[in-house]
Amino acid sequence: MTQPVTPPPSLPRTVGVFGGGRMGAGIAHAFLASGSRVIVVEDGPEAAGQARDRVADGLAKARAKGGAVPPEDALSRLRTTADPADLAPCELVIEAVPEDAALKVRVLALAERRAPDAVLASNTSSLSIGALAAGLAAPERFLGLHFFNPVPVSELIEIVTGPRTDPELVARARDWAAALGKTPITVSDSPGFASSRLGVCLALEAMRMLEEGVASAADIDTAMTLGYRHPMGPLRTTDVVGLDVRLAIAEHLARELGHRFEPPRILRDLVAAGHLGRKTGQGFYTW
Description:
The chain has helices at residues 22-33, 45-65, 101-114, 129-132, 167-179, 195-211, 217-227, 234-241, 243-257, 265-272, and strands at residues 14-18, 37-41, 78-81, 92-95, 119-122, 142-147, 156-161, 183-188. The chain is an alpha/beta fold.
């Protein structure tokens, strides 16, 4: 009989994930693979069931590929629910709902009420940690934990410190990242942090080049993969992330940092047409 896997001492034994979409399911996968129990909260029983299927599918694919194979008991340590009260035993709750500031503020306040002793984190890729903490009773127990897609194999976690985040919490978060087999970087709260600000800047310029007929999408991406050793070009990366997600981040950065982040017309047109990248089958590429 396979022995149950326990998390490293530095990792929370029970982790809550509020939102079970692609990113939330990936975050759940990462903690399950490291031995934690995970509770995923979704908006209704049907969505909770879909979140469980998403995590189960991810675990099965990881086993099929070999390499860092998740433990056999991983799925047995997952609970999906539509009731936020089930977050009560969590030591850490990570918000992974869509990139909408008002929604995130509501979810974080709800998570704090339901799990009053937990550390709270947001997976936001660009929104202000200080602003998201405005509705919390204990903002010192809140920080950003920006995971990257696909979470199970991505090597990076961006830890974002808010103006009132406890420095000791940042040190703990770095230990969590290491226990998950990932490398942390620590960034002060600023628009787009480090990763999104640089990544979106490169992607927007690639889109402008495509608009201007400088080169095809494939050739622009090849310039970065072969010339600069990027694992994936900026346009293909945008398809993977989601054009709607990139548009929302660009609009936020344009408001905060100025015209240089203004989304190109081609991005707005593709999103308006429903071409959101890999998740819809069409973006800058056909999937």
